[in-house]
What we know:
Layout (H helix, E strand, L loop, with lengths): L1 H15 L3 H14 L3 H10 L25 H16 L3
Helix pairs in contact: 1-2, 1-4, 2-3
Amino acid sequence: MRLKSLLVELLELLERHKITSWAVKIKQICDNAATDDDLVTEDLKKLFRGAGTLDDLVISHSNGHLIDQKEEKEVNRRLEYLIQEIKTFF
């Protein structure tokens, strides 16, 4: 399942850079992905509504994330790609 693999990659990226609050939310959605597609879709939509959404996340050393400044551009490109791909499912 393509969505599940995207979610797992996003989870790994968040965990690698110690973005715990978002990692917990994505982990819960990953756990639900095996059982309830409708619930997963609704949970994902919630991550992109309003201010302070996953769309607003920028992984950077200055934001307190575990990342070298030289990696920021590449990692944020990957984050943006994953988010855009996940959004195609709803």
